[in-house]
Amino acid sequence: MVRIKAVRTDHSWESVLGRFLEYKRAEGLRSRHSATIRSMLPGFMRRYPGAGAKSDRLAEAAFECLAEDVAPSTYNNRLIYLRTFFSWCVERGIIGSNPITNIKKRKAEPRVVSID
User: Fold this and answer.
1) Which residues contact 49 (CB under 8 A, 6 or more apart)?
2) Is 45 a domain residue?
3) Rounded CA gap, 116 and 21, in Å?
4) pLDDT for 41-71, tens place per residue?
5) Which of 10, 30, 39, 96 is the most exposed place for a label (fewest CB within 10 A)?
6) What pLDDT score was predicted for residue 2?
7) 14 HSE (CA, 13 A, CB side)
8) Those residues with Cβ within 8 angstroms of residue 50's Cβ, 6 or more apart along the chain or in another chain
């Protein structure tokens, strides 16, 4: 299991998330993506409130979130948003490492089209 440092005590997830969204807006993030991030990441933090308190809990929470039985597109969106957020946190020294760096995207099952 990946070991990561706990979130620094001078950073609340709410303030970190706010700074992340400001950073993404400055980068030119589309409003559609911004709205998705604003709903997905705070939802993750609410569902796993202890995720920042212990280093192992953040990784466990990310794995739990990605282990849910959802469509491949939903899974891939969650993976991308969490991976991007965690990588940004690592760059700023908020967490020690990204627990989902090596997790791969899912592929959708091929659609079968019958021609009658």
Assistant:
1) none
2) yes
3) 49
4) 888 888 887 776 455 788 888 999 999 999 9
5) 10
6) 57
7) 2
8) 57, 61
